[in-house]
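idk why but the lab printer keeps eating my pages so im just putting this in chat instead. protein + iron/sulfur cluster:
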Amino acid sequence: MVYRELGNTGKKVSIIGHGCENLDRKPYSQVEATVKTALDNGINIFEMFMPGKQIREDVAKALGDRRKDVFIQGHICSTDINQQYDISRDFETSKKYFEDCLRIFGGYLDFGMIFFVDSDKDFNAIFDNGIVEYMQKRKELGDIGHIGFSSHNPLVATKMIKTGIPELMMFSINLAFDLCPPDTYALGELGSDFNKVDFRGINPERAELYKLCERMGVGITVMKPLGAGKLLSTDHTPFSKPMTDIQCIHYALSRPAVASALVGCQTPEEIISSVKYLTASDKEKDYTFFLDDMENDFMGHCVYCNHCQPCPVEIDIAAVNSYLDIAKLNEADIPPSIISHYSELSVGGSACVSCGSCESRCPFGVPIIENMAEAARIFE
Ligand code: SF4
Ligand code: SF4
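predcted complex ->
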């Protein structure tokens, strides 16, 4: 397994995480086998938004003594009052479900998440109803390690990040969603909604959100990296062919600030399939076909796909480009974390010998030589 820093939390999470949703209402033997396979493969982050008592207890039981070795994302405002997944912004109701989650996972949640902050109404309610304040108190008491939130809407998520309160965000990221404008509610409707989407490029509000997170040291965990499986399906893909799980995971992991792609596996076999990402070749990870496949305005913009490698002087071109993109948002105020990430690169942009081999491989016409010089000017 490979582990990444989750923003500034000081926690290192596995790049493949386990979204436990699809284990809900499954027999305990299946929950146990899947959780144990995840643990045995080095997965150390488990997403637990589900409000049901049974699934929470089953996952906690399957973790057993190994609870201390993993990070749990537990949510407030996720309820199942009518025996179905539901959202409540009522303080007492939200508190009751959250405290149940705390208790089941040993009185401590590594990541205390505020559930589904997707609209201005959600945003106002969590502040007005005392939910944010409650989570801050729980953190002060040491009952939760870090405050996070989940969202599918880049504009509301941006507003939330700018409060400076969240230390992590769970956001729905995959190539299909990233092509949607913020107000396109693609969740669960990928196939039909995509008929209405004009494929003109990565949505700028989404791209800016990821960069903002990187700038502010807010780590991202990714939900729906496979588009609820629809991106893998011939019938539901919005593209001319299905993506593979490896391509989807790679896309999510190559966005700025992303630390972990939470894959909703429901069997040990699905866990094994997702961790195959770790040994996949660059060719297997390559998702650029899907960008080439559509009319787009990706030209000139780095999508961090690594198609330009190898570089004879071993510059990590995608990383240099991603730090450069963030720095150029405001050159006068480059976040120290970005300067530090750049300085940790074994080779900087100044090492570029202008051989041009990368530019001939880049499908998006990125002016890489120019970018390397620009990065050297800014960072070195
Ligand atoms: S420079 Fe081009 S090939 Fe290289 S990571 Fe960026 S988009 Fe991909
Ligand atoms: S042009 Fe520069 S960055 Fe590109 S492959 Fe050559 S040395 Fe590496």
